[in-house]
Specification:
Layout lengths: L1 E12 L2 E12 L3 E5 L6 H8 L6 E8 L5 E4 L11 H5 L4 H17 L2 H4 L2 H20 L5 H11 L16 H13 L5 E5 L7 H12 L4 E5 L3 H7 L2 E6 L2 E6 L2 H42 L3 H16 L25 E13 L7 E13 L3 E5 L6 H9 L6 E6 L5 E4 L12 H8 L4 H9 L17 H15 L3 E5 L7 H13 L3 E5 L3 H7 L2 E6 L2 E6 L2 H8 L2
Parallel strand pairs: 3-7, 3-8, 5-6, 6-7, 12-16, 12-17, 14-15, 15-16
Antiparallel strand pairs: 1-2, 1-4, 8-9, 10-11, 10-13, 17-18
Helix pairs in contact: 3-5, 10-11, 13-14, 13-15
Length: 550
């Protein structure tokens, strides 16, 4: 059943329209993946559905009566004074209000002016009964137990419920926000990048909740693996137009490419026919002029009018704007990296005399040309291992050997390798000896327009910083890549460019990633870090998952 319809929607920021005359019917029993490049307006659509009409120029939203919609933004905001449990309890303002009203009624019932007045007492008891009925209809009797089981089901340990929300990671904040939605079971869930910052276990739990959800879901995500597992339909937003594809993400990619090729063939065939008719009409018009023959002129004009009425097939965009990333480097050593009996300990936060073991007895050998995915839960020590390899920290025990002709290129998850106080132009020219014109041209290959090249790095979005880091990797020409969550903040077209670049890269790569689709396409070995130790698996992520469940 149709839950909500967007009719002839036009949204603009200033004088620039994001999309025009948009039409979309959203069903209450479908899980829809909304995809498209960064900045195309996906989040704007979700905010519009939730009532943000600041940029609405035209159109209307028609919802079924009493439709309940839940929205998880990219960055959920909580009361900083709350613990996890206190914040979760705010999930239902209606229930909170009813509880407050019931408490007030209990106070009134103890008032002699009420219990001593038969009419007042009857009215108060009647009001109490109605509130209790509402409370039961809203699931108030099971609310606390459902809230707790949802939090635990999404991965929170019981002691973590008492943590202040300010101590949570970005992924944990998403899960608290999701809990507040799920416990109310709205008819339609709108999820904006719910998987960002989640580790693999968190993503799997999220997927299970979405698959089992009894209602409609619209999910904006760059996680293609998740979209393969949960989506019934993919809706692509690009160049202000919505295109619908039945099936999951992989089916969408196949169908999209098939449609583009079919449209290209039809476009070329029509162009060939149009050219033939134009030439024939021009010949007739020319002959009419040369021979002063009105019949030729009329026929030529008639053919031109017919051509004007032809519904032209749009030329498909087979080569959309994408960053131009090519990774090259010298061959390097046969042994790119060797780690022997590596330990890393830190003083325990609770007792400086005690030690916290992060890595214990790690051994790892990576030869030239190997592509290794490093996986494990958040906090397992993956980024610590990278810092040790880079020499930013020293091991407690053990040895790390980098091949003598190995040149390391590092992509930092938090972009800390970028100087926020440099302009983009200065950043590129500090990395490589380029003229200003060549640096501007180079940045253009990573989708930075000329006007932006003089902006400071600190003013860039997460996706723009990611593209800038990719550009610097290309300039430095490493033969051993250490990539820490390289697909975070990148849109799907940019991730696909990175995948192609890694496929063509004649070097070695060690990649930390929670992007399972990306790992499937780029690595041939998985190293799992858990409880301070390494476990190794041959093959890509899907092979690793299969071997874990044997």
């Amino acid at each position: 059943m149709i839950a909500l319809t967007l009719k002839h929607i036009t949204i603009a920021y200033g004088t620039e329209p994001i999309f025009t005359d948009l039409y979309w019917e959203i069903h209450d029993a479908h899980i829809v993946g909304l995809v498209g490049p960064n900045g195309c307006g996906k989040s704007s659509i979700l905010r519009l559905i939730m009532g943000d009409k600041d940029h609405l120029v035209a159109g209307e939203i028609i919802a079924t009566p009493n439709l309940r919609v839940g929205y998880l933004p990219q960055d959920p905001q909580f009361n900083p004074d709350h613990t996890v449990w206190q914040e979760a309890l705010t999930a239902s303002p209606e229930l909170n209000q009813i509880e407050a009203d019931l408490t007030h009624i209990e106070t009134k019932l103890a008032d002699p002016d009420v219990y001593g007045d038969e009419k007042k007492l009857a009215r108060t008891l009647d009001h109490q009964e109605r509130l209790l009925q509402q409370y039961e209809e809203l699931g108030g009797n099971t609310f606390v137990s459902r809230l707790r089981s949802t939090l635990l089901g999404l991965g929170f340990a019981p002691p973590e419920l008492h943590l202040p929300v300010t101590a949570l990671s970005g992924g944990q904040k998403k899960l608290v926000g999701l809990t507040k939605l799920l416990v109310n079971q709205p008819d339609l869930l709108l999820l904006d990048e719910p998987d960002n910052h989640l580790d693999l276990a968190g993503k799997q739990r999220l997927e299970q909740y979405i698959r089992n959800y009894n209602g409609g879901v619209v999910i904006v995500s760059h996680d293609r693996y998740m979209l393969d597992l949960v989506a019934d339909e993919i809706v692509e937003l690009n160049n202000g137009q919505l295109t619908h594809y039945p099936g999951n993400y992989s089916e969408y990619v196949f169908e999209r490419e098939t449609r583009l090729l079919r449209q290209q063939q039809m476009y070329q065939a029509q162009q060939k026919e149009i050219n033939r008719l134009e030439q024939a009409a021009n010949r007739l018009l020319l002959w009419g002029k040369i021979f002063d023959n009105e019949k030729f002129s009329r026929r030529g004009q008639s053919m031109m009018k017919r051509l004007d009425k032809v519904e032209r097939i749009d030329r498909p965009d087979l080569d959309p704007d994408r960053m131009q990333l090519y990774l090259t480097g010298s061959r390097g050593s046969t042994k790119a990296l060797e780690i022997i009996d590596l330990d890393k300990l830190y003083p325990a936060p609770s007792d400086p005399n005690d030690e916290l073991i992060i890595l214990a007895g790690l051994n790892l050998l990576i030869n030239h040309g190997q592509r290794v995915g490093l996986v494990g839960p958040n906090g397992a020590g993956k980024s610590v291992l990278f810092r040790l390899i880079l020499g930013h920290e020293q091991p407690t025990n053990g040895t790390i050997k980098i091949g003598p002709s190995t040149k390391v290129g590092y992509y930092a998850q938090e972009h800390e390798s970028l100087d926020p106080n440099r302009t983009l132009l200065d950043t590129v020219r500090h990395t490589a000896p380029l003229s200003e014109g060549n640096a501007v041209s180079f940045l253009g290959r990573f989708l930075f327009p000329y006007e932006q090249t003089h902006n400071y790095v600190r003013d860039l979005s997460g996706g723009e910083r990611s593209r800038l880091q990719m550009a610097l990797l290309m300039l430095t020409r490493p033969n051993f890549l250490l990539l820490d969550e390289p697909t975070n903040n990148l849109d799907i077209p940019s991730i696909e460019v990175l995948e192609t670049a890694l496929e063509e890269f004649d070097g070695t790569a060690l990649i930390i990633s929670h992007d399972r689709y990306f790992l499937d396409r780029t690595v041939n070995r998985i190293v799992e870090l858990d409880d301070g130790a390494l476990n190794q698996y041959l093959g890509n992520y899907s092979a690793y998952e299969a071997s874990k469940h044997q």
